[in-house]
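task queued by scheduler; priority normal; single chain, no ligands, no partner chains; default sampling; output format set to structure tokens
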Amino acid sequence: MSETHSIEGFVAGMVKQFTARPNTVAGEVARLGALRRQTLGMLTYVTEEQAAFSPKPGSWSVLQVLDHIVLFEALYRDAIAKLIELGKQGRKTEIRYSLADIDVSMPMVPKAAWSMLEIPLDMANNFIPSIVRQTMIRFPVVAATSPKVADPRPGLTLAGIKVELMEAARQTADLLASPLPKDGQDMRISHPILGNNNVVDLLGMTAAHEERHQRQIRDLLFHPRLPRP
């Protein structure tokens, strides 16, 4: 995708988010469920060989993209589970992650500089609406590296990852089946790059992340060198 198309998509995504965002935990969970069904539907006629196809060394296959979706969702689901547990204990429902905890980065910034940027980034995040962060995830105008915890695992199979995709959606829905105090608005996760987000924001970012990778999967499945059955 060209930079121009990325910027056009970013602007279109902003408009779409402002006009159609569910803005509740239940609404975001429903949106995630619909996206997951779309993702699984894309795999209906995909073979194991096609799912394992990578267009060049170092680039992800469909299997790896799908595993990354599962692991990214688990990252936020575990964070939400910790917030819920803090609430049950009567403690402050806030978690602060550092770049060492979740090592998202940008290739153009040297690793040595990140420690100096954490505090300025944390301060800047207080003024960046979550909708902007979600749109930046959905349409990555600025490239960023994924955290190691969401790197695809070895030994993946198409049948296995389909089961994990369904199970991940079920676990997220089950976790949030009971209403949260103030609909999760006072439960917050902060990170220098991923921002300061409540539960609704976290679910919105998870949905934006899956939409982003659905486009990547489509590109792989329409690649001219994809093995044909």
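post-processing summary
- The two ends are 27 Å apart (CA to CA).
- Residues 62-88 form the longest helix (27 residues).
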